[in-house]
Design goal:
Elements: E1 12-16, E2 25-30, E3 33-40, E4 43-48, E5 62-71, E6 77-89, E7 96-98, E8 114-120, E9 123-127
Antiparallel strand pairs: 1-9, 2-3, 3-4, 4-8, 5-6, 6-7, 8-9
This protein binds FE2/S2 (inorganic) cluster (FES).
């Protein structure tokens, strides 16, 4: 049976698997907007390239591990250290988002819009 009015969009080709290496990203067009696709911690993630704060190109920001302040048991400051959490920093105002979850590090009520990623025949696609 054919359902009228319901058409699924074809998956959006991003790159060959070998062409998106660890730490690399690609911005692909999807209609009037763009999607950032990046490989981090061995996995590929895709997010709408529009920051939930004020619409900045969040997927084009710096990727950096979360910085944590080290406070000793005596409440003295012992410096800063990087954690395993990898963040992307929006270039407009610096909001940080966890790359694995898309959640805003400073306020978990906000998150980047995530897309499903599939690999097929050594190629990466985003399901739009
Ligand atoms: S638009 Fe991204 S932090 Fe403001």
């Amino acid at each position: 049976m054919i359902q009228k009015g319901i058409e699924s969009m074809p998956d959006l080709f991003v790159a060959r698997v070998d062409d998106l290496k660890e730490g690399q990203r690609k911005i692909v067009e999807s209609g009037k907007s763009t999607i950032g696709v990046l490989r981090a911690k061995g996995k590929v993630y895709a997010y709408h390239n529009e920051c939930p704060h004020q619409g900045g190109p969040v997927c084009e920001g710096l990727m950096i591990h979360r910085v944590e302040e080290d406070i000793g048991p005596d409440k003295t400051y012992r410096g800063m250290r990087y954690t395993d959490d990898l963040h992307i920093v929006c270039p407009w105002h610096g909001w940080e988002f966890n790359i694995e979850t898309g959640r805003c590090a400073g306020d978990g009520r906000h998150a980047m819009r995530k897309y499903k990623v599939i690999e097929r025949n050594d190629e990466i696609y985003v399901v739009v």
